[in-house]
């Protein structure tokens, strides 16, 4: 059997992690979108923060199809760290409890790339912010674009809900620095992996995830200012130097996302 045949026969393992707390109204759609993925080797981990609204009861309905835990934690990123430590997949990504996969072949699309180039360490794709009461209505479309390491200096970052990386690479940078960041640890993690460690990444040009509008860092001016400070700190924790315009361009890049809509229906 040659190398090509070996790769075609290999089943790359993935872990999807969802962190939730009192998400009974949305968690089922999130779960169903993961379990509907066509790739055969997906481990699904849910880290619940001791919900009291029926979320845990919904999770229990899926039996052993989900590896889960429900207990109090110290915050979002502490729970996310707990998730990757529970995981066993070779590649790992996070799907928020308000979000869901846009299509059933999201994970398979990454596997197809790995069969050609198994040296890829990370993947990401497009993200759509949608109305909470009508998820077919796109409010903002984040076209991530092709990977170039130095794009970080121009305020670029991949959409974290679409980002998947080798679990051992996440472990190597010690995951999310939960004690230091309240809203930008996802930026910190991706900056460490892609910019500092220079792991090879690949852009999948499809809409991977739909996210209901909202979010920690964008919910108020106070939180936006905190995100600005944390973005700057993310560079410092790795001993990296960024341009001052980098931190200004990062939020400004979002403006175009409110107006852009893909013309290629295959992307959606």
Provide structural commentary.
The protein is an alpha/beta fold and 268 residues long. It has one domain: Spore Coat Polysaccharide Biosynthesis Protein SpsA, Chain A (Alpha-Beta Complex), CATH 3.90.550.10. Helices cover 35% and strands 22% of the residues. The protein contains 9 helices and 9 strands. Strands 1, 2, 3, 4, 5, 6, 7, 8 and 9 form a 9-stranded mixed beta sheet that branches. Helix 7 runs parallel beside helix 8 (221-237). The protein is globular, with a radius of gyration of 18 Å. The protein starts with a helix and ends in an 11-residue tail after the last helix.
Task: Please tag this protein with its features.
268 residues, alpha/beta, Spore Coat Polysaccharide Biosynthesis Protein SpsA, Chain A, nine-stranded mixed β-sheet, 9 helices, 9 strands, 35% helix, globular
């Amino acid at each position: 059997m040659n190398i090509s045949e070996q790769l075609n026969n290999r089943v790359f393992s993935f872990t999807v992690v969802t962190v939730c707390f009192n998400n009974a109204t949305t968690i089922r759609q999130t779960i169903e979108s993961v379990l509907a993925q066509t790739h055969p080797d997906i481990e699904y981990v849910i880290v619940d923060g001791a919900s009291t609204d029926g979320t845990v009861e919904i999770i229990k309905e899926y039996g052993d199809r989900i590896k889960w835990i429900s207990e109090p934690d110290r915050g979002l990123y502490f729970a996310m760290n707990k998730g990757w430590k529970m995981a066993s997949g070779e590649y790992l990504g996070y799907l928020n409890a308000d979000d869901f996969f846009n299509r059933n072949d999201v994970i398979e699309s990454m596997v197809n790339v790995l069969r050609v180039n198994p040296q890829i360490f990370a993947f990401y794709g497009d993200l759509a912010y949608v109305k909470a009461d009508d998820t077919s209505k796109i409010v903002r479309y984040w076209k991530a674009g092709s990977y170039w390491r130095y794009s970080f200096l121009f305020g670029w970052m991949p959409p974290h809900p679409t980002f998947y990386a080798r679990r051992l690479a996440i472990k190597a940078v010690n995951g999310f620095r939960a004690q230091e960041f309240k809203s930008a640890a996802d930026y910190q993690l991706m900056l460490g992996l892609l910019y500092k460690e220079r792991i090879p990444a690949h852009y999948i040009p499809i809409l991977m995830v739909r996210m209901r509008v909202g979010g920690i860092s964008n919910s108020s001016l106070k939180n936006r200012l905190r995100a600005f400070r944390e973005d700057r700190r993310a560079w410092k924790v790795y001993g990296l130097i960024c341009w001052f315009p980098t931190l200004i361009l990062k939020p400004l890049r979002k403006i175009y996302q409110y107006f852009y809509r893909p013309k290629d229906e295959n992307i959606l």
